[in-house]
Amino acid sequence: MTVFWMLLTACLISTVNSRNATCIVRPQANCKKFDLDPKPEGIYVDSFSECCAFCTTNAKCKAWTLDYRKAADGHIGRCYLKFSCDGLEMDQDAISGVMSDGEPFPFAPCQFTDLSWSKCEIATFPGMCDTLDFPGCCHWCGLPDSGSCNANRTACPG
What we know:
alpha+beta, five-stranded antiparallel beta sheet
């Protein structure tokens, strides 16, 4: 009888933890804050799909970030499970995902519709810089013919 209850309990746990959701992934992105990790230091993983799988098994998990800077012992990095991805930021050393049964990725500061993070460096005159200027993303500094378009600025330095 004990074996029966152990099997029944295992089935109930797997049913509670299963969910019909997939991960929507965004490279070079970090969902800052909103951690719900059972381990505050993150979980070592070998792929971003493994990070997605951890999130899928936790009903409270709505997003995750895999931080490549935390690679160790043959693992590619640490996975951090999240309540939300509202703190989305550009991060060359991370990849993040949101669950398809939760909120979509928020609009991140300085992220363009083609998912690139900054086009300011290609602007060669003030008007071109203005067209790339989501608030705080690009700002022209200097004279019209000898200035520069600065990324992640709302004002000129100095």
